[in-house]
Amino acid sequence: MASTFAVEIETTSLENNTDDIGSGDLDDLIEPCDRQENTNFNRIFLPTIFSIIFVIGIIGNGLVVIVMGYQKKSRTMTDKYRLHLSVADLLFVFTLPFWSVEAAVGWYFKDFLCKAINVIYTVNLYSSVLILAFISIDRYLAIVHATNSQGARKLLVERVVYAGVWLPAVLLTVPDFFFSTVSEEEGSYVCNHIYPEDPVKWLIGLRVLQIIMGLILPGLIILTCYCIIISKLSNSKGHLKRKALKTTVILILTFFACLLPYYLGLGMETLMLLRVIKPSCSLEDNVHKWISITEAIAFFHCCLNPILYAFLGAKFKMSARNALTAVSRGSSLKMLSKKRGGLSSVSTESESSSFHSS
């Protein structure tokens, strides 16, 4: 988690005030940045936001998984992508209670859990946006090349999605597996990344990789596909075409509104690590607070995915009603059968006692 294990940029008043050095004592010029205010902010803000995302994400994505399981035989290719997306988001929301505890009181779990939670976080970070990119490619093929795209769409959703989404997402967790560890900072334990030898270079390299794989590459695919779709639909008439066009615009705006602010914060921090932007205590504190807030906004995307990619469809609403009705009927039948079984046993016992008494 970027806001959790961000490397502190070493800044001092000596670096910030080089031009103002006079004849005073050099020790008076060296003042480390105070992180307490940002820490106190995270202790309240992050657990609150993570709790909200956890509840909404569990309900929304859980419902999608239930409905997709119910309509297994009638699943479309788009439904299969939605199932992949909801599984990735469910994996992620299960990690939020651990991050909430760490933000509030520190890391109170084992070193193994530190590695596992970071691995799950990274898998979701990349798999969710790459799945959205695959969905945009699928929509492009279905709308722009509707007549001869069935084979290509089927190949993408049944074979290529594993090599293009899950395999890269898992491979990108290798640094988490090796470098995630529990360490002590300022009297409390944190789940951190400890990089060997030159940690700043490691962080810069991994941060650039995250920006490319988490935003730039999938963002370009999504933007290109949906712009072509918009161009195609804008030349068509009819209520359904206008509705599809409106939904497409909402998908694009939501993707970039959720993720772009967070990645702008990561980009700013990376430029500070590279010394392209001269760091200072106030700038560093503001950037870290910005990352904390925008990361939480980016996390909300896992709550919005079920709404945008499932609940907007009339077919999904009908399937959800049918699935929930079937589940409720099934539970009612089980309860009824238990009651009947209990009544029959009571009846048998009473008949047996009356027979013996007579």
UniProtKB/TrEMBL annotation:
Q: Where is the composition biased (Low complexity)?
A: 344-358
Q: A Pfam family this protein belongs to?
A: 7tm_1
Task: Give GO cellular component annotations, separated by semicolons.
Answer: early endosome; external side of plasma membrane; late endosome; lysosome
According to the lineage, what is the superkingdom? Eukaryota
Q: Which residues form the G-protein coupled receptors family 1 profile domain?
A: 60-309
Its topology with respect to the membrane? Multi-pass membrane protein
A GO MF term: C-C chemokine receptor activity
Q: State the CDD domains in the record.
A: 7tmA_CXCR4
Q: Where in the cell is it found?
A: Cell membrane; Early endosome; Late endosome; Lysosome
Q: Does the keyword Membrane apply?
A: yes
**Region annotated Disordered, chain positions:** 339-358
Keyword annotations: Cell membrane, Disulfide bond, Endosome, G-protein coupled receptor, Glycoprotein, Lysosome, Membrane, Receptor, Sulfation, Transducer, Transmembrane, Transmembrane helix
The record lists the membrane-crossing segments as 44-69, 81-99, 119-140, 160-179, 208-231, 243-264, 290-312
The record's listing under PROSITE patterns reads:
G_PROTEIN_RECEP_F1_1, G_PROTEIN_RECEP_F1_2
User: Would I find Plastid among this entry's keywords?
Assistant: no
An individual GO BP term = positive regulation of cytosolic calcium ion concentration
Which family would the database say this protein is a member of? Belongs to the G-protein coupled receptor 1 family.
The entry describes its oligomerization and partners as:
Monomer. Can form dimers.
PANTHER family xrefs: C-X-C CHEMOKINE RECEPTOR TYPE 4 (PTHR10489:SF594), CELL ADHESION MOLECULE (PTHR10489)
This protein is called what?
A: C-X-C chemokine receptor type 4-B-like
Q: Which organism is it from?
A: Geotrypetes seraphini (Gaboon caecilian)
